[in-house]
Amino acid sequence: MTSVLSSFYRRRNFYYLLDRRLLLRRFSAESDPSKVIKPDCEESVAREFLEHLRDIPQHDWVSCELLDSLLLSSSSSPRVFSQITRRLDSYSLAVSFLDYLNEKSESLKHRDESLAVAFQSVIEYACKEPDSRDKLLKLYETSKEKKVPLTFNAAKLLIRWFGRLGMLNQSVLVYEELDPDVKNTHVRNVFIDLLLQGGLVDDALKVLDEMLEKESIFPPNESTVDIVFHGCVSKGKPKRRRVTDEETIQLVLKFGDRGLSPNSVWLTRFITTLCKNGQTLVAWETLSKLMKNKIPLETGPFNALLTSLGRNMDIGRMNVVAAEMDEMGIRADAVTLGILINTLCKSLRVDEALEVFEQMRGSQSDDGNVIKADEIHFNTLINSLCKVRRLKEAEELLLKMKMEKGCVPNTRTYNCLVDGYCRAGQLDTAISAVSRMKEEGIKPDVVTLNTMIKGICRHLGVSSAVSFLMDMEKEGLQKNVVTYMTLINAYCNVNNIEKAIHWFDQMVEAGCSPDAKIFYALISGLCQARRDHDALAMVEKLKRAGFALDLMAYNMLIGLFCDKNKADEVYEMLTDMEGAGMKPDSITYNTLISYFGKLKDFESVHRMMEKMKKDGFFPNVVTYGAIIHACCSSGKLNEALKVFNDMGSHSKVFPNTVIYNILINALCKLGDLKQGLALKEDMMKKRVRPNVETYNAFFKILKDKNQFETVLELLDEMAKHSCEPNHITMEVLMELLPEVGESKRLKKFMQGYSVASSIEKDAPLSLSRCSNETAV
Q1: What digits encode the pLDDT tens for the residues 248-260?
Q2: Deepest in the core among 26, 259, 498, 523, taking most CB within 10 A?
Q3: Which InterPro entries has this protein been placed in (predicted)?
């Protein structure tokens, strides 16, 4: 504001009225009751004055004795002159009457007051005139020349209208030339509002600071608060300086020191903004300071804070806020109840949610209304109970819901129950729930349909889901993208890619646009079925639909082409991926390392390893497994063992069952049973559990080496570790045990009994001996 006013300071003409402060106090103070003129008397004088003014020519007003007598009447109070001026027929007559009063000012009992109120009425006339700009400027200059004081309202009118007419500088000049006693709270409010509208935020804040000073005789009021927070903080003109959150908080607290606060709607919006900007703690501290100043606050801002805390699952701080609200007498409402229940349910603290629900339901909110539980509250609780498999309690809560006045179960309510029963595998009960909702006049929707389809696919199979779908379609329910997605995924999971594509085609024919997830599912299914040409065709369809491959889809395609040894397509996918702005991840690198390992291209394997580390991905157990497998496949067993030994010591990646099996299988194939068994012992010592593949590798070599006792020991070990045999195990044992006359041992093994303990110590069996005995 200093820059705007500097030019005015040089040219403005200061004027001072004698005993101005006393005069202004007379404007604002009530008159002595004994000297108050009755309104009906004032009205009579005003009416008579107006009749003579209209009958007498204007040029004769000054010389008219009749008007003089009325002017000198004891009933001629300043209010009378205000009434007369307002009731004249035109602006020109009002100006003429003001001139008349000025001519007769020496005869007026209350000269300054009378002129001031009449001048205010003339300004009101001028504001309505087409050429108000020129008239107001002329009137303001006249007031200074003739030393007509401005009333509070006259000052407000001039400041406001000059601003509306785009004359902000003139408004500033009027304000600065006002006597300090005229600059009351209302005048300052108008001026601050005008400065804010003109984008002079800093100047407006300076005026506000004067009002906020402890010794200020014109402190801010509620209107000041509304003006400041609407014009200063709310979104305004693009060129306006933005008031920061920190400045806004200081304004809120300064008003709070004066016992004032923004209205609840604005404060709620501001607390929400702070929370969205990650300043939840600042929002809470601001509300706390307002509460310490005993500022009357409503529930809205606290609900905004609780919403943010709930979104961050900060239940501890939510409890603190709720306790502070209760201590300060700020009562929760239905919204508070919903926020608390929703957050507790999301964190699966269902018992606490139920406790809050019972405590708050029926209590009274700040507005005097009783907190009633609605469908949303009940549905949230029922849904959470279903998710934690407490289905009986969910049904009990549904009964309570039906008994609650004005609260009726809806489709969402039953969908929660249906989903709960489907998750628990209780498909019959889920179907029964769908029947119940129909009986109660509640129509199932597509969510009901999709929930049932998903549950049936998981527990009964996709064929049963299709049958259910057809039945529901007869009742008028229509499929949507989710329905198709569920069926397509289900068929892909059982490797029935033909049916999956059939449903995809049906979906397109029905005019239902597939989303990216559906394309990804089909690409994955086609990759698993090793149908590379169809997978690429689906990629083209995906791109034509406006979607792009994600990293997972690229990895699936790269894996497929590596598996089919199509180097050109692998390179094309990598190039396409790079063009899409995606970098390979650990899955991509592991796939490529495995691919180059199968090709025995160890130079490329090492190059991929280095690039992988450079991109910030460290080799994991899959990476080492691929390298060890490649070394073993190439006959480089020593190098494979070196990589194996380096895993735990250097990379701190520990081998799993798969890696042990690769090495054990390679050692057994080379006939090195001793080292293979040693590796198995090392495996068990490190608590890596052998599986059926581990034992199968030993059975094959033990058969060839005629070590029947070791076979039996390993069979007992399998039983001890609950390792179930597979078809390969049974083939080897069926060839081995009957051959040595040990069919009973095979039967015992299959029944889970120990087989090694029944071997006669004094007559150890060997495969060669048994074979000879059989021959004899």
Answers
A1: 889 899 988 888 8
A2: 523
A3: Mito_RNA_Proc_CCM1, PPR_rpt, TPR-like_helical_dom_sf
